């Protein structure tokens, strides 16, 4: 047999735009997903885990953010079919509901959590694989379903550790914007396709309010806008008067929900769609009030414009209102962690029938980043108790020790590297952030004792300016083997406190 | 603007070989993963969640089962690089360890759980996406690491609900087989490449012991084998004497571990590698014994031959020993749910340095199927309490009722479909497997009462031959609104009992 030709070594590298998660990062996300699932379940939602792979045909092109140059999916051809990784959890829901609608209850409340993949330009904090955590109600036409999702979102944020006052959930309505566009003369209910291009530019413009400010948006509503690099973006061509009506919409929030509703009613005077939309907002506010969710948690705010191009009715967004420092050290609000709304056309693609649906998506990685920014999560976690190996031939004894600790509920392990250099064992324990090391040489074994080393105390003494204050607490001491478990538990309890 | 051309409707279909998981299926798997993670963590392992996507270069071709015609990955070209979905969790571990080895502790104990994808022929119960749940120790040369994984596997099976006696963990060693091949004359330690082709056939042959029986394997060790369809598979060309030595290896298990070890020692007489392998098996048995894991849980069994071509030292496998019925109604052992072993060459691909590693993979979906087969998991779970809607205009009242229930910790929801037909609301509650419905018309609202309907009792009465026996327990009754929560809790507690 011919010798196999040597291959060059492969590069050990996470693919560009992807990343790996270690230890506490994984555990904290798992715990957060579990808490969110708990709230969703409590509200009557059922779990769904759809396949990560969909046919490209079923996925369609429904990314919520319309303004991406490189929007796209990871796709490949297989058995004469194009398959792709899901880019969100909503498109798969539409497919699943259309496929299984005769077996599923209606309304169908479902939650889903898992990674999604986007084939996009990457950047700092922007990855091609990230977690979403969604809840949607399919088949419920009433805005009570939207109100319920907002209440649930509020509960969820508090359950994962964002206290009331540190977040704001804003509710808006696409129908109100449509009414405003009618009044502004860029939407004709009798000819829905007319001005479609202008409306597209209006939608994209107001989606950029955060980034461009009112002047930038106003320019895009009119003739157009030249950005800092000199590139010109063509505007919607609205007159100054038309543009003012649209700008007035985004600026319609007043001190109370009732005042905001009244202002919006003025703006949409003469438009049935607009009036419907304002009434829906009012109903949502009433229903939330009945459940005890006041404006300290959820407000009507027409400045919430993200994704209005995607949704067909109520739209909602949760942002965290506390300040963090951006990469240049400037304070800024943490910003959006969740968004959602009503979309009544997704299932129709498959079945031809309009199925009302509303839902929310929580950006779990953003929420975790927020908790880290507030110091409510730490990167370090306590490692296991380490049973060191003094005598390679007595491995069975060390295994018996660790079995005793584990049976007593204490997380622990035997050092399994090369035991020759004892210092390496302690360095390993340090790297693992271990609380305690257990040491037993043959002398200790003969006398049925073990040495216990309190590594947290040891680290404190090493750091301390006056080691004297620790002199009554020895960092290493001998105990009878029979007292080992009790003594170690005592140390662990003390370290927690 | 030109009208958009109508697209044909997409098919709502899970891609071929994939599936969706609903409700209890998702929750039960999540709970099982959480229990397994708990045991792994307790043993000192740290979580790792690597990217689902890898470069094809990093993945290599290391599928454990060598005998698949359609083995393969889902891959696509991106930015002049070939990317692929991971097909297991071991290849990514090798990449991660090679990439981050300077930051990770050594030994590196890590666990990982998540979906993997295989581009293979599908069949009943055989999907292209499934869950794995792995634990590996990288950088520990001692077989104490292998023994630890076997002990942990035993604990894990018991924690997820497989009682002792219903499973068997078998340990074997590739080195012993290598020793046997030396003695049989198809392995020459001074020229490792010689007879490589014959050894490949031997490995594939003994991997098929389960399926072909001893006669089939014997044929493949010799001239070859004609299968039922008439296809001829070329054999390894061993003489009858040589084949007998290999067959003796698979048949070496004796009543006690010591007797098995003694028999294996005989078989490998004259081979250093074989002797090393038998000594390793003996050490593993001793270490397990020291931790209290006897042959009622873990046995040395040379008939465990799966994946011996892949591993380089100890190999282990967990099978469930209870009987289930196969698709034709015949009783058979449930079979393998987990396997693993030592592989000392995976990281070397990247770094050129040999890094010892050993680990186990649990087939979570198989384990869940086992628990269902034993009746330890059910497909049905209790749904939420349903607050029905008698009067569409009083939605705020129903929302207040459900808020009160939720705040009291009771899973509940308001019916959000079209409330016109009350029968549909009860059908919905039935489909959700709801325990209780709450009913409040305007009359009840005026009197500050609600009707409570015990749906489980209702179903029992409907099924019962003698409805009389239920006459003292009304299935629907009126309570003061202020007593609603207490009364519903009472019913739910009674249903649980």
Automatic annotation (TrEMBL), chains A, B:
Record: residues binding L-histidine: 88-90, 118, 132, 136, 306, 310-311
Annotated GO biological process: histidyl-tRNA aminoacylation
Coiled-coil positions: none
InterPro entries linked to this entry: aa-tRNA-synth_II, aa-tRNA-synth_II/BPL/LPL, Anticodon-bd, Anticodon-bd_dom_sf, His-tRNA-ligase, HisRS-like_core, HisRS/HisZ, HisRS_anticodon
Catalysis: reaction(s): tRNA(His) + L-histidine + ATP = L-histidyl-tRNA(His) + AMP + diphosphate + H(+)
Highest rank taxon of the organism: Bacteria
Transmembrane spans: none
Major localization class: cytoplasm
Record-linked Gene3D superfamilies: Anticodon-binding domain, Bira Bifunctional Protein, Domain 2
Molecular-function annotations in GO: ATP binding; histidine-tRNA ligase activity
Domain spans labelled Aminoacyl-transfer RNA synthetases class-II family profile: 17-384
Enzyme Commission numbers on file: 6.1.1.21
Keyword annotations: Aminoacyl-tRNA synthetase, ATP-binding, Cytoplasm, Ligase, Nucleotide-binding, Protein biosynthesis
One GO CC term on file: cytoplasm
Localization of this protein: Cytoplasm
Subunit structure and binding partners: Homodimer.
Family the entry assigns: Belongs to the class-II aminoacyl-tRNA synthetase family.
Name by which UniProt lists this protein: Histidine--tRNA ligase
């Amino acid at each position: 047999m011919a010798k196999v030709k040597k291959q060059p070594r492969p590069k050990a590298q996470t693919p560009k735009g992807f990343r790996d998660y270690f230890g506490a990062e994984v555990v904290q996300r798992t715990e957060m997903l579990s808490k969110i699932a708990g709230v969703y379940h409590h509200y009557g939602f059922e779990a769904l885990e759809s396949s990560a792979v969909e046919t490209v045909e079923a996925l369609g092109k429904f990314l919520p953010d319309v303004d991406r140059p490189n929007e796209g999916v990871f796709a490949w051809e297989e058995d004469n079919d194009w398959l792709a990784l899901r880019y969100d959890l909503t498109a798969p829901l539409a497919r699943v509901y259309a496929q299984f609608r005769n077996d599923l209850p209606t309304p169908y409340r479902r939650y889903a959590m898992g990674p999604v993949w986007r084939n996009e330009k990457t950047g700092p904090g922007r990855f091609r694989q990230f977690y979403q955590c969604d809840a949607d109600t399919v088949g419920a036409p009433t805005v009570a379903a939207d109100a319920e999702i907002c209440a649930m979102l509020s509960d969820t944020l508090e359950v994962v550790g964002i206290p009331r006052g540190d977040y704001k959930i804003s509710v808006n309505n696409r129908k109100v914007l449509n009414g405003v566009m009618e009044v502004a003369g860029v939407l004709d209910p009798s000819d829905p396709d007319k001005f479609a291009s202008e409306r597209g530019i209006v939608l994209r413009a107001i989606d950029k309010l955060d980034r461009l400010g009112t002047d930038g948006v106003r320019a895009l509503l009119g003739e157009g806008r030249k950005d800092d690099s000199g590139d010109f973006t063509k505007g919607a061509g609205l007159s100054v008067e038309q543009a003012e009506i649209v700008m007035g919409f985004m600026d319609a929030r007043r001190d109370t929900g009732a005042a905001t509703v009244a202002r919006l009613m003025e703006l949409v005077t003469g438009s049935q769609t607009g009036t419907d939309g304002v009434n829906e907002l009012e109903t949502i506010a009433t229903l939330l009030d009945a459940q005890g969710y006041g404006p300290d948690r959820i407000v009507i705010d027409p400045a919430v414009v993200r994704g209005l191009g995607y949704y067909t009715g109520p739209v909602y967004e949760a942002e965290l209102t506390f300040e963090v420092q951006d990469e240049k050290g400037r304070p800024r609000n943490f910003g959006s962690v969740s968004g959602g709304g009503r979309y009544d056309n997704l299932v129709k693609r498959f079945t031809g029938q309009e199925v009302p649906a509303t839902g929310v998506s929580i950006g779990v990685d953003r929420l975790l980043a927020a908790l880290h920014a507030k110091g409510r999560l730490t990167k370090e976690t306590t490692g296991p108790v380490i049973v060191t190996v003094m005598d390679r031939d007595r491995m069975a004894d060390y295994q018996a020790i660790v079995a005793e600790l584990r049976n007593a509920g204490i997380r622990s392990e035997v050092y399994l590297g090369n035991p020759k250099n004892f210092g390496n064992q302690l360095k390993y324990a340090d790297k693992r952030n271990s609380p305690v090391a257990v040491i037993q040489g043959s002398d200790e074994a003969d006398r049925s004792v073990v040495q216990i080393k309190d590594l947290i105390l040891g680290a404190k003494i090493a750091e301390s300016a006056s080691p004297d204050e620790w002199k009554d607490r020895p960092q290493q001491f001998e105990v009878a083997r029979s007292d080992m478990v009790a003594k170690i538990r005592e140390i662990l309890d003390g370290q927690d406190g």
